[in-house]
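Sorry to interrupt, but I need a hand with the structure work. Could you write out one complete protein record for me, on any chain you like? Just paste the record in under my message, thanks.

. . .
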Amino acid sequence: METKMTTLGRYPIRFGAVLSFSVSILLFLTNWSIASDGTQQLQSAVLRMNARLGSGETADGWRRFLLLNVLETQSAKGEQADIATLQMLHQRFASGTAGLEHPIFSDVRIALENQIRQLSTAYMVDVSGAVEQARSQFTPISGEAIDYYRSLAVRELEMFQIYFHQEYSSEEQLAAFDALKIEEAMEILLSVKIEFAPEVSVGKMDSMLRDIKQERDEVIRAIDALPFDNPKNDEPSETTRPLPDGEPTLDELKEKLRQLDARLQEVNDQRNQIRDADAPRAKLRAETFRKLLECEKRFSDASESFRDPFFVSSRLAFERFVRIYFYGTADNLQEDFLVKIAKLSEELPKLSNPSERLAAGEVGRVVEWLEITNQVPHLAAAIRAKYSRPNLYLSISEDLLNRTSRNECSTRPVCQTIGGQTVRGTATTSSRVSVELIDDPNQVHLSIKAHADVNSATYLQQRKITAFIDAVGQTEARRSIFVNLGGLLVEEPYAAANMDSSLRGTSSNCGLINRIAENKFSKSKADGDVAASARVREEILERFTTETQTPIANGREAIAKAKKKSLSQSAYVPELYMHSAANRVHITGKKSSRSTLAAIDAPNLFGFSSQIELRLHDTVLSNYVDPIFSGKTFTNQELAQELESLTGKKLEALSPQPNDGVPDEEESFSITFSQVRPVQFEFDQNMVSVIVTGVRFSQANKQIRAGLTIKLKFRITQRNGELKLERVGKAELDYLDRESKDAKIVAFRSFLDGRLNPAGGTEQSPVDLPLNLIPVDKIDAMKDRPAARDLILCQCRIEGGWFYAGWNLPPTGSLPSYAIDVPAIWTTADSARPSSN
């Protein structure tokens, strides 16, 4: 595979062939706002840049010069990014340094500009007021906008092709291009004909028909509500009782009904005429959309195999075009916009109550629609900034990081020639290597420190007299390391030494000789100590540099592996960033998506502190399962398999129940999950609740077009020194709409109730949990670390939407005696709460 070296400014970088896409597209990008896609665009651009840079000296040069650790943090923060920091980063990318004109850098620069522009507006938005103003801010999707997204999708596909040709083997390339049919996808993209619906469209006529029908229904209800002279007569009298002033009479209402019927017929005829005239365009649009969806499905199916940033960004760009084309050429986008804004106005005030989780799901869906259709981008970004905060916090104390630090004492022989004289003896060094954390809001800044006390006993021979010299001193060596999830930067080490020598005596018994020796030693002591300090410093620096190379290399390798693994599991890895503060390493994450929000509020701060602290919001779990179940239909067998793969435990209630008196065909059923929050987790009252919402069901040949919610509660219980996850009480089944329930949904609810709450049957067996809640055997990074098993669980709370957990590692060879704050671990009568003893 042919590669070339291209010099970008001061740092050579391996790029292969320079991307050949036309400069005109790049110029077009600089003048186009990506609306509310700013965060996604920036994150994709940063991932692509890191993939191109790779690792090594070249990558380190650019990482240091462009402050990429800081960029990765601000990118991961999304709508919570700091504008001043973004502006500082933009200055670096726009500095004009040779090499920054390359597309991988210019893409980041453009993305930074768009993000700064978007957030500068969003941070000034009063969300409640902006929702009301939004009703009059509808923006039609222009042909130029659709054309732009087409160009962007083509460009991303070309970049993906070039990257694959350079970085993957011929076999892998063939497999990828055969699965994706990229050339066919680009041909379809370029052949899409953009035609808009007529100004008076079928969709608008449908809206008019709905309005007329609604008004007609109101008139009919008004007629039914009129008082009559003879209410017992089945045929009411035409003569009405006197009505209050201003109220319409029966005759007036009947006349209005007749006019509405005529209007209904007239509008319906017009609709049919418009439909017939618009049929060719609608048919072409439907056929184009079908082809685009086929291409999109190929990308979706391949997403398990290809996780590199260039594939991900090309897939997102393709999906973005499909949706902007669909909505831009739709019949009545404005009507849909008004419906979405009305929904937002209804649900947004509920978010002041963090327990309104379904409202958060509804708002997330509306925000996704606004972003896809390029509507009120400032409002969409402002909602995410205010109501979608990090939902994962993990911190590790400096004390725990230094648990592997050790004191070492070594004695070695000394034989050096100093000033033409040979000095011999021994030197004893007592050293300790430790880690110090430095406050830094954008990365982990740690200083590796090696401190040593040196004691030497040496002698030198001058003719027949031996002089004995003692020396004591302290040395210190340091090396700064800057870490983020995208890479690691290392500063050159430095060292200092301070030696103080003293004459212990000579081998002579002559007082005169001893006084001469002392006098000579005192005159040369200052220069000698300086020289000795310099020699010790050089020796310490050389040893420290050599000994830190291996852990630094291991760190680079670990980060590279983590980056590769995170790409292969991008559907499961939240947006993360790291920083150091207050003697702790903090890892902050946000798991959300285009259709979901993250945490509405921040976790509480407790006085209790532990070496490892975890704060997990229930939206993390809900957002994980959302794409698995949202709007999809599962049979009970398929659902059992999916849940077993997620939890590792078979759910008996979904499996066939032999000999229960129910015919075999009645054992199987299917559930169609809700589009919004199909599976909702709730952390509260020291328990975990799971709410499943199904909008339709089927059983045997019966189609049940009504919905149910199923709520299960779980808690962690300690029994006889073991922890169990057990169900609490009965499963709670409720109707989505009590007023419209029918016999079929009532019968099906009874069937499910029997499955989930068997009368006189055994309850679902509890799940065994590790005593410290850490499944060491299932986490690759912990399998080979004995300390992970020794961690003591010292905090466990589940309240207000958050799961709080903390662990301490007891000192080696001692019994831990930590305070325990574990109200979420319920005790039974025959057991005691887990303790650290």
